[in-house]
Amino acid sequence: MTGPTASAAPATPADPPGGRRAALVWGVGVSVYLVAVIFRTSLGVAGLDAVERFDVNASALSTFSILQLLVYAGMQIPVGLMVDRLGTKKVLTLGVVLFTLGQIGFALSPSYGMALAARALLGCGDAMTFISVLRLGTRWFPARRGPVIAQIAGLVGMAGNLVSTLVLARLLHQVGWTAAFAGSSLAGVAVLVLLLLLLKDHPEGYAPEPVPHQGAAYVRRQIATSWREPGTRLGLWVHFTTQFPAMVFLLLWGLPFLVEAQGLSRAAAGELLTLVVLSNMAVGLVYGQVVARHHGARLPLALGTVGATAALWAATLAQPGGDAPMWLLVTLCAVLGACGPASMIGFDFARPANPPERQGTASGIVNMGGFTASITTLLAIGLLLDATGDDYRIAFASVFAVQALGVTQMLRLRARTARRERERLVASRVETVHVPA
Questions:
Q1: What is the per-residue pLDDT across 305-321, written as a single tens digit (0 to 9) for each?
Q2: Cα 236 to Cα 369: distance, rounded to the nearest angstrom
Q3: How much is the mean pLDDT over the chain?
Q4: Residue 9 falls in which region: left (phi positive, over 0), alpha (psi -120 to 50) or beta
Q5: Which of these, 263, 135, 118, lies nearest to 199 by C-alpha position?
């Protein structure tokens, strides 16, 4: 008998079988995530409208996204613990209810303060979706498919961003603020019905081993043991460093930058935002296949994406007069599309480092990374725009400082993570050899 290789772990008797039933159940889960992303990114196409509706400046506008992401990031570890303890269906159900109420509240908010509260509620529900979908994939599909399943989940999320860019933006200008946001909330009701009717936590006969829960002691143990794994920490920093440039661009500041700083029409800016999303979807499929076959490609892919993103941002911001040629903006947006798939590689470091009963907690820790970086950069850009009289070149230069911090931590943890993975691989081979035929 041969042991597992570093590129792909073979299916074990404990692995779920996958198949059509798995695809159906997982499809319901990712449809929930799709709607959550539509609601999350809806402000990205309505930023200029929000300025007029609520009569706010750049810092106040950025507070919408910062608060939403702050709630999202702060909820990641609690949600991971909830998923490990309660299962996917209960957590997803609560998430759908919360983000749908948040979207309705945002549609009807007459004031800036009420709109902020609605975005916070939306962020809380949104926080419960992605980790739940990741766990659902590990419960229904063999481990060797993990990287591809995770990338497809990210791809579906970007499809939600595409819906915001193409559909919700048009609705906003055709039927107005209230009708567009309230009408979109019906998608939340639809996925809630599907979730209640069709979703199951795991296939028959593949229930996880019961884990004793002992209140605060259980919580501390879950977090501490997950954090002690260098793969979890490296995954967090990979997610931190790779995700935020595209997140900041799509979630809030891309449209104002392209319209106000680059002089493009809203239609042309919308097309470039769409390019980011389409590039993300295409690159995600490639990255998923590469990582599934060659785990050694994980860190080079992540670092390469960071380097390419930094180089394109530098070239764009360094243009004389601040006006970049269209070919450079197109290239920038195409490269930004790789940020989302690169961030998913973070989960490919954390997943093999933690047993099934800690997958939710470990995923929550990793998922905090990119959203923490996004919050920091959103705030920095808003403050710098107000302080410099809307100088986007100075404001967007904050991207480089956040990237530098993340790369430093990735390089610091890479050797420790590789050593731990080799130890685990050797132990797995020894265990396999001693299994009776």
A1: 999 999 999 999 999 87
A2: 5
A3: 86
A4: beta
A5: 135
Answering whether pTM is above 0.85, one says no
Per-residue pLDDT, averaged over 195-207, amounts to: 85
Would the CA dihedral through 52, 58, 63, 66 be positive or negative? positive
CA dist., res. 183 & res. 204, Å (int): 38
The Cα angle at residue 152 between residues 41 and 139, in degrees rounded to 5: 110
Query: What residues does each domain of the chain span?
Result: 20-201+224-430
Looking at domain 20-201+224-430, which CATH architecture does it have?
Answer: Up-down Bundle (1.20)
pLDDT classification of 213: cutoffs 50, 70, 90: low
pLDDT tens profile 140-166: 888 777 778 888 888 888 788 788 878
pLDDT at 404 over 60: yes
Type of residue found at 250: L
CB 261 within 8 A of CB 399: no
| CA 7 – CA 330 distance, rounded (Å) | 34
Question: For 169-195, b where at least 16 C-beta lie within 10 A, e where not — what string?
Answer: bebbeeeebeebbbebbebbeebbeeb
- Strand, helix or coil for residue 246: helix
Tokens 């979908």, located at residue: 133
Q: Any alpha helices (H) in 249-324, and if so which ranges?
A: 254-256, 266-293, 298-317
Three-state DSSP at 47 gives helix
**CA 242, CA 304: separation in Å to the nearest integer?**
10
Which one-letter DSSP state was computed for residue 65?
H
> How many Cβ atoms are within 10 Å of 196's Cβ, its own excluded?
13
Which among 378, 186, 155, 177 has a CA at the least distance from the CA of 281?
155
CB neighbour list of residue 280: distance below 8 Å, 6 or more residues apart: 154, 155, 158, 161, 246, 337, 338, 339, 340, 341
DSSP notation for 181-201: HHHHTHHHHHHHHHHHHH--S
Cα atoms in the 13 Å half-sphere on the side-chain side of 366: 32
